[in-house]
Amino acid sequence: MSEAPSVVPPASVVLVSGGSRGLGLAIVTDLLAAGLKVAAFARTVTPELTALGEKFPDHLHYGSVDVNDAAAGQAFVKAVESTLGPIDALVNNAAIGQDSLHVHTSADHLAEIIRTNLTSPLILTRFVLRRMLAKGLKGRIVNITSICAQRGYPGLVAYSATKGGMDAATRSLARELGGRILANAVAPGFFASEMSAVLGQTQLDQIVRRTPTGHLTEPEDVLPVVRMLLLENTNLNGQVLVVDGAASI
Amino acid sequence: MGEVMTAQGRALPAEDTADLREIGFRSLDFSELALRVEDELGDELNFDAPGLRRIATVGDVLDFIEQLQSA
């Protein structure tokens, strides 16, 4: 069956997983400021997310959901649809980090990392896509991956594998969805906070020295890229956009 | 199938032999149709891609959906 060209409209209702802190919270904040309706979930709802909910009661739907609880995630999606309207964009941001050499990472912990960072986002994506397609909607998917998917770093073997998996899934989704739903990934370099805590100071200093822009990636560097992928008509599809100041080049 | 096409401002041809490429019925349109059928059945219709690739006409689509429902 042939695929006809189509234009995907800007996102209007965006679901952000892992939206209670760090980059996820920054994405939620940025999209609300841009006037979009946003749904955000995370294992733990932070005071910052609660404050956003009080500031944007008609535009933000949030709740406590573990991304690994598929049933809870699906119930959340349905609740969002009833409060904000049909979801037409998904930002897969929820993930857990790693700080252990592969040989010292238990099999159970490996499985947990893969489940949280790869299996569960794919299951959530599948569910959201099914809702979009059933409603005849066009839409957008943005997967937050990592420079770890493209470069090697010690202590991040399983984490890197999951992010590489999401990059690969992004490309296949773009093909499979025939331009009706745009799928792209954003791969930040190391943040000065959170995930970077798993690297030693020496390693971080080394990365900074080798970064042409002279600083580690900040959430503020990533926000315009995510916003562009959700709102602009760029014909970007199936791409992984690295935001790391050329540290990895 | 008619509902999916109507939602996109197109009409379903009367002939079962109508070529899907010619009427602009894409693979994702098939997915949309399958999801609508799922809603009615209250059950998931999962299938592999090779079966989908053999579908070329309106009649093929209707036959395939019928097979999925009876499986």
Automatic annotation (TrEMBL), chain A:
It comes from the Bacteria. It holds the Pfam family adh_short. GO terms for molecular function: oxidoreductase activity, acting on the CH-OH group of donors, NAD or NADP as acceptor. Residues 12-191 form the Ketoreductase domain. One of its GO terms (biological process) is fatty acid elongation. InterPro entries: KR_dom (IPR057326), NAD(P)-bd_dom_sf (IPR036291), SDR_fam (IPR002347). Belongs to the short-chain dehydrogenases/reductases (SDR) family. This is SDR family NAD(P)-dependent oxidoreductase. It comes from Kribbella soli.
Automatic annotation (TrEMBL), chain B:
It comes from the Bacteria. This is Acyl carrier protein.
